[in-house]
Automatic annotation (TrEMBL):
It comes from the Bacteria. One of its GO terms (molecular function) is acyl-CoA dehydrogenase activity. InterPro entries: Ald_DH/histidinol_DH, CoA_reduct_LuxC. Keywords: NADP. This is Acyl-CoA reductase.
């Protein structure tokens, strides 16, 4: 199987996923193997929602729609054009996936297979329904993938390298357990936004997408904002109001009530609007339904501080603050070349030989 075959297969997968969008499910007659997979995937989506209360219909479809837009032949060709693919004897790369948002490990899965290597997947118990089904679809549109994709629920065995994602605590375990294998080990990261006080209403409304999408559970979700001294939060809260129906989701509401009670009993100072709390805090990682904030005096000093703590940061949302910033509202819409932790997984996969 050559590179173009792999690209064509993933482009067909993207076309299959295009039937499942935030606007609803619409069957397309021209999709290959739809008789086998269309209704079955609807069932897997339902199972994913029932198994994990955070995987609502809206969030699952948002993830699927995002991947359908990325998995086009044009996007895939543009993504891979800078690499030299010369693997003659494929090795097996294991992937230990997180389960915080739907299909969160799909980019690693894609990167390993597009490189020409074999993949061994250990899924999170929180997200175990969608990917195996999509892998079966890949094997049907490109039979050469058969034997290159495997899943395990037990101990990882017979692999040559590993990509593992987890918390800071599990990363220490991963580093020890995989110390004899080439590896990418990912730890906790959070995303932040830098505000200047002159953001438009549209920018702040877009920021609400970065805060609330997937209930704030992703590493690309904004969990902390930096604001200038004497910042007035009214405009910020107005921008967030678009998401007020989120409080009707029971798991989110339970977290909101619990964290609010903790803050009140601890006599912490915080502001809230009935569905979101903001609290001044030096940490980057905030609880569900909470965004931390911190004041800054100097943008130059803030840049230095963020550079010193770059290993804790996934995305910086801003407007004109730094070269690698992400526009408001775009954190959950990464491109194929936007690698987690800025570690190029295709380059890593191509070194395993």
């Amino acid at each position: 199987m050559d590179l173009q075959q792999r690209i064509n297969a993933f482009a067909k997968l993207g076309n299959f996923l295009s039937q499942f969008t935030s606007e609803g499910i619409r069957r397309k007659d021209e999709i290959p193997h739809n008789d086998l997979f269309f209704e079955g995937f609807q069932h897997q989506i339902k199972l994913a929602q029932e198994h994990n209360g955070w995987f609502t219909k809206e969030n699952v479809f948002f993830a699927l729609e995002g991947w359908s837009k990325q998995l086009t032949e044009s996007n895939l060709n543009t993504w891979v054009e800078k690499y030299q693919f010369n693997i003659s004897s494929p090795k097996t790369i294991a992937i230990v996936m997180a389960g915080n948002i739907p299909l969160v490990g799909f980019h690693d899965f894609l990167s390993v297979l597009i490189s020409g290597q074999n993949v061994l997947v250990k899924q999170s118990s929180n997200d175990k329904h969608l990917l195996p089904f999509l892998a079966k679809y890949l094997e049907h549109v490109e039979p050469a993938f058969r034997g290159k994709i495997s899943f395990t629920e037990g101990r990882l065995e017979q692999f040559d390298a590993v990509i593992a994602t987890g918390s800071d605590n599990t990363a220490r375990y991963f580093e020890y357990y995989f110390k004899d294998k080439p590896s990418i080990i990912r730890k906790n990261r959070n995303s932040i936004a830098v505000l200047r006080g002159n953001e438009s209403d549209g920018e702040l409304k877009a920021l609400s997408e970065d805060v609330f999408r997937y209930y704030g559970l992703g590493c690309r979700n904004v969990s902390k904002i930096f604001v200038p001294k004497d910042y007035e939060f009214d405009a910020f809260f107005n921008g967030m109001y678009h998401w007020h129906p989120i409080i009707n989701q029971s798991k989110y509401a339970n977290n909101y009530d619990y964290n609010k009670a903790v803050y009140l009993m601890s006599e912490f100072q915080m502001l809230e609007n009935g569905f979101l709390m903001i609290k001044e805090d030096a940490n980057f990682s905030s609880p569900i339904a909470t965004v931390f904030y911190e004041y800054y005096d100097s943008e130059a000093d803030l840049k230095t501080m963020l550079d010193d703590r770059k290993d804790q940061i996934q995305c910086v949302v801003a407007h004109g603050f730094r070269d690698d910033e992400i526009q408001f509202g775009q954190t959950q819409l990464p491109n194929l070349g936007d690698y987690a932790d800025d570690v190029d997984t295709i380059s890593f996969a191509l070194t395993i030989c």
